Amino acid sequence: MVVVIMGSKSDWVIMKQCTKVLHQFGIPFETYISSAHRTPLRTKEIVLDTEHRGANVFIGAAGMAAHLAGSIAAMTNKPVIAVPLAGGVLDGIDSLLSSVQMPNGIPVATMAVGKAGAINAAYFCVQILSLQPKYSNLCLELAKDREKRAIQLEKDTQTIQDELQSQ
């Protein structure tokens, strides 16, 4: 199971992209809203409860100070992935730096800012889970997904070439 924790409801617009990918691969997930700063005890309860119930990977998505993923990592030994989100005057750079700069021994895998990061967080979960015998089929599913994406790129290339030739 993957646990997706967002710092606020406004983060759902982006993180919905993450859960779509998890759903596509048949990975069970739960989503929560909890803040490292405003509701740290709730965050701890979520992490401990879901870990007890079998959580394999955590995703923390937040903007600005973005300490959520780091806070989660301090509470669990399971993999934690950060999705920095845009917001505030630095448009995501602050959240990226907050997520990347972790003390040694408390790692957080940090994705790109925004939608691409949310989607890649889900794909990274798929890769992590594929190491477990229960999810061994995921390697084949990832290969199929990549092949499908490659075919789509070829189709897109042809569409553009056709459009240019018709001008």
Automatic annotation (TrEMBL):
Substrate binds at S8, D11, R38. SMART domains: AIRC (SM01001). It catalyses: 5-carboxyamino-1-(5-phospho-D-ribosyl)imidazole + H(+) = 5-amino-1-(5-phospho-D-ribosyl)imidazole-4-carboxylate. The keyword Isomerase applies. Pfam families: AIRC (PF00731). Keywords: Isomerase, Purine biosynthesis. One of its GO terms (molecular function) is 5-(carboxyamino)imidazole ribonucleotide mutase activity. Its EC number is 5.4.99.18. Pathway: Purine metabolism; IMP biosynthesis via de novo pathway; 5-amino-1-(5-phospho-D-ribosyl)imidazole-4-carboxylate from 5-amino-1-(5-phospho-D-ribosyl)imidazole (N5-CAIR route): step 2/2. It comes from the Bacteria. Belongs to the AIR carboxylase family. Class I subfamily. This is N5-carboxyaminoimidazole ribonucleotide mutase. It comes from Helicobacter muridarum. The gene is purE.
